[in-house]
Amino acid sequence: MEFLANTASIFQKHGMEFLKATVLTIELTIVSLLIACIIGLVFAFFKVSNIKILEKIANAYIFIVRGMPLIVQLMFLYYGISSIFILSDFAAGAIALGIHSGAYIAEIFRGSIQSIDKGQMEAGRSLGMTYFKTMRRIILPQSFKRAIPALANQFIIGLKDSSLVAYIAVSELFNHALSAQAYNYMPLETYFVVGMYYLILVLIFTLLFNKLENRMDVGKGKKHDKVEVAF
């Protein structure tokens, strides 16, 4: 009963602060993942290209990101970016998270692109399309559809990873939890409350991606490899 009473007290005292911090967490997640998708798509093209130097650059980037803990990368990138550019903590944190997630999204895009039958590229080229036009109109629309389940999982991971920017003074959800528990001396209840906020956000993201999967009929393209041109 005491736990429930303390939890209710935290909601009452810090509810508005947590709500504002939740909005900032969503904004940070969206911005960082947009950056990650751009980086991921670029390095995915490097990986599937026949240019060895580009492939080596992509492999080195992905290896370094996968081989180091996220908190180490976050600190290194945050202080590195801040020392070169005058950016807000939010912007520097979003870029750092985007660079980290970009490596994983690059592999997702690379796998989905390579899952498309090579005959579809040949069919597009035989119709007079250039390589990039064939990629944009035929390959990418289908590969993006196949990548949605893996992207959904990575986006949820990105949402949870955003909590680490609390250590670089970004006032997101977990940062407010750290401040609140230091103020009210109820760490168990405070972290329980913030955990509920993260669970709700994950549930919302999951429902949105499930709706997107159903709308795009993910999996249909795996049954029949036919050329689909997007105009």
Automatic annotation (TrEMBL):
A Pfam family that the UniProt record links to this protein: BPD_transp_1
GO cellular component: ATP-binding cassette (ABC) transporter complex
Chief location: membrane
UniProt-listed GO biological process terms: amino acid transport
Gene3D superfamilies from the UniProt entry: MetI-like (1.10.3720.10)
TM stretches of this protein: 23-46, 58-78, 84-106, 190-210
Superkingdom classification of source: Bacteria
Topology in membrane: Multi-pass membrane protein
Keywords attached to this entry: Amino-acid transport, Cell membrane, Membrane, Transmembrane, Transmembrane helix, Transport
GO MF term list: transmembrane transporter activity
Protein localization: Cell membrane
Domain named ABC transmembrane type-1: residues: 22-209
InterPro entries: AA_ABC_transptr_permease_3TM, ArtM/GltK/GlnP/TcyL/YhdX-like, MetI-like, MetI-like_sf
Family: Belongs to the binding-protein-dependent transport system permease family.
Annotated NCBIfam families: HEQRo_perm_3TM
Name of the protein: Amino acid ABC transporter permease
Annotated source species: Lysinibacillus antri
